[in-house]
């Protein structure tokens, strides 16, 4: 029997993720000790309410509301509470005490990562966060380590499990938005406030973290363009499906360098987009996530798996915990964040892509010509026009005095498309601009 030294681990949070971290730590204690070369001793679990009903995976005697004391006695602190405060204060205290920290908290890292990484570097501690982006999928280490000698050019991913689950349910079984969100919440995918998921905040935070790593740049979260999925109705999804597309909430981080247009920097953006059914991202179902990475040398890489859920996220947390523990046993300086490139953040108007614009128009002669002229006036080239084909009922009928018009464009500048849409909305014959969706991956 090998006698191992002990590493004292404090767990902040005993909810969906925390309970699963505790379960693995306790159930696999011997195996983890053998892998690390030290016994990982869970010394306590900080929660808000020790009397609340919770998973039996956490022994009751480990529960405490005194997070500060717990942190001071720990070699490694795992933060799975979520939110900005008190998580920020606790992580700061943990790093200042010399502990390494493992966190799944993308909201905190996207808003305060710069200060926390700087503190960690100053005190010689490490801040691990594999679980903060795309749940169980290893994506932080590949970007930080495996691709450290390459140049990443583009990242495109589905990084929010809740919204993918909702869009998938609306697409495949006709669930309403509210029904699908309720199931996602029940399954533990959604954030405490699901607004963070459906309005794209969570995906924007993850996009910022990925972009910072990929482009060695400090990403200002307020410069990440963000659109959520509230505007994606069942009808929009049905239209997309009939046209051969799936609707996915995408997080895109892209290096743009076009001197002719004075564009040189990074575009980071989150929006619902059309993906051809033949594209691998269209096949990402349920709460799964997938991240495409394009790099100069490596070419295209795809990382796929569970993006949310207690056991799945706990797996990523445990991976970081083993890394942190090994560092305690073996020593070594760890890794600092790299932000030397400091590229400019570009507005969404700098991008170029193709679009589907859906209009409700008066069903009368000359309307098509007037609509086409608006596109031409802004140098947006039309690729296809479908009239009356796409209705939620699947009929080819127009709706009374109006008809549905779907216009697909060739690649165009976002700024030109925006001007086109603004002018379309002013046309007398256009009753409403029902949706404007970008096409990605075509
Ligand atoms: P959760 O189920 O809401 O659990 C949060 C836990 O933190 C609860 O045990 C809660 O205590 C405790 N807590 C909250 N505020 C506290 C405070 N002020 N003091 C002490 N304890 C406090 O959250 P979760 O789903 O496990 O998520 C945790 C973190 O992981 C978040 O940052 C989230 O974004 C991230 N994450 C979650 C998933 C997922 O699928 N759930 C996936 C990836 C990343 P009580 O139990 O007493 O209320
Ligand atoms: N609410 C998040 C999601 C959890 O749905 O992806 C994982 O970060």
Shape: elongated
Instruction: Outline the biggest β-sheet.
Output: 11 strands, mixed
Class by alpha and beta content: alpha/beta
Output the number of helix runs: 14
Q: How big a fraction of the residues is strand?
A: 25-35%
* Percent range of helical residues: 25-40%
Say which CATH homologous superfamily of the largest domain is assigned: Dihydrodipicolinate Reductase, domain 2
Task: Offer a concise description of the structure.
The protein is an alpha/beta fold and 442 residues long.
Descriptive report:
The chain has helices at 16-27, 29-36, 67-72, 87-96, 106-123, 140-146, 161-172, 177-186, 195-198, 201-215, 234-242, 310-330, 367-377, 414-426, and strands at 5-12, 38-46, 63-64, 76-79, 100-103, 127-128, 152-158, 225-226, 245-258, 263-276, 288-295, 299-306, 352-362, 382-387, 402-409, 412-413, 430-439. The chain is an alpha/beta fold and 442 residues long. Helix 5 (106-123) packs parallel to helix 10 and helix 7 (161-172) crosses helix 8 (177-186). The protein binds NADP nicotinamide-adenine-dinucleotide phosphate and L-homoserine. Residues 135, 160-162, 189-191, 197, 202, 307-308 line the site of L-homoserine (HSE). Residues 135, 160-162, 189-191, 197, 202, 307-308 line the site of L-homoserine.
Please outline the helices and strands:
Layout: E1 5-12, H1 16-27, H2 29-36, E2 38-46, E3 63-64, H3 67-72, E4 76-79, H4 87-96, E5 100-103, H5 106-123, E6 127-128, H6 140-146, E7 152-158, H7 161-172, H8 177-186, H9 195-198, H10 201-215, E8 225-226, H11 234-242, E9 245-258, E10 263-276, E11 288-295, E12 299-306, H12 310-330, E13 352-362, H13 367-377, E14 382-387, E15 402-409, E16 412-413, H14 414-426, E17 430-439
Parallel strand pairs: 1-2, 1-4, 2-3, 4-5, 5-6, 8-10, 10-17
Antiparallel strand pairs: 7-9, 7-11, 9-10, 11-12, 13-15, 13-16, 13-17, 14-15
Helix pairs in contact: 1-12, 4-5, 5-10, 7-8, 13-14
The chain binds NADP nicotinamide-adenine-dinucleotide phosphate and L-homoserine (HSE).
L-homoserine binds at residues 135, 160-162, 189-191, 197, 202, 307-308.
């Amino acid at each position: 029997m090998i006698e191992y030294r002990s590493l004292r681990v404090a767990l902040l949070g005993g909810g969906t993720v925390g309970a699963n971290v505790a379960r693995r730590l306790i159930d696999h204690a011997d195996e983890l000790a053998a892998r690390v070369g030290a016994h990982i001793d869970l010394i306590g679990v900080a929660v808000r309410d020790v009397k609340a009903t919770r998973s039996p995976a956490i022994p009751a005697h480990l529960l405490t509301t005194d997070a500060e004391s717990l942190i001071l006695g720990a070699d490694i602190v795992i933060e799975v509470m979520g939110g900005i405060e008190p998580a920020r204060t606790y992580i700061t205290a943990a790093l200042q005490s010399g502990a390494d920290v493992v966190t799944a908290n993308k909201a905190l890292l996207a808003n305060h990562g710069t200060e926390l990484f700087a503190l960690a570097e100053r005190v010689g501690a490490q801040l691990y966060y594999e679980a903060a982006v795309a749940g169980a999928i290893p994506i932080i280490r590949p970007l930080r380590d495996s691709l450290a000698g390459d140049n990443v050019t583009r990242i495109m991913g589905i990084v929010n499990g809740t919204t993918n689950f909702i869009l998938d349910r609306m697409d495949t079984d006709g669930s309403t938005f509210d029904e699908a969100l309720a199931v996602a919440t029940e399954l533990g995918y959604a954030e405490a406030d699901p607004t963070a998921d459906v309005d794209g905040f969570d995906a924007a935070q993850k996009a910022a973290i990925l972009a910072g790593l990929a482009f060695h740049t400090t990403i200002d979260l307020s410069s990440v363009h963000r659109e959520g999925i509230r505007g994606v109705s069942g009808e929009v999804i049905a239209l997309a499906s009939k046209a051969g597309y799936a609707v996915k909430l995408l997080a895109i981080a892209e290096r743009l360098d076009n001197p002719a247009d004075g564009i040189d920097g990074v575009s980071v953006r989150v929006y619902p987009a059309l993906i051809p059914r033949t594209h691998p991202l269209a096949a990402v179902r349920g709460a799964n996530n997938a991240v495409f990475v394009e790099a100069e040398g490596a070419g295209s890489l795809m990382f796929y798996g569970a993006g949310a859920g207690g056991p799945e996220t706990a797996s990523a947390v445990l991976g970081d915990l083993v890394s942190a523990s090994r560092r305690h046993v073996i020593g070594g300086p760890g890794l600092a964040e790299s932000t030397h490139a400091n590229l400019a953040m570009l507005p969404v108007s700098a991008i170029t892509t193709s679009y589907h614009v859906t209009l409700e128009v008066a069903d009368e002669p000359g309307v098509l010509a007037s609509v086409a002229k608006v596109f031409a006036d802004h140098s947006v080239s039309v690729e296809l026009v479908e009239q009356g084909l796409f209705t939620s009922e699947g009929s080819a009928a127009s709706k009374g005095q109006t008809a549905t018009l779907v216009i697909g464009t060739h690649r165009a500048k976002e700024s030109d498309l925006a001007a086109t849409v603004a002018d379309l909305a002013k046309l007398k014959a256009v009753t409403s601009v029902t949706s404007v969706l970008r096409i990605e991956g075509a």
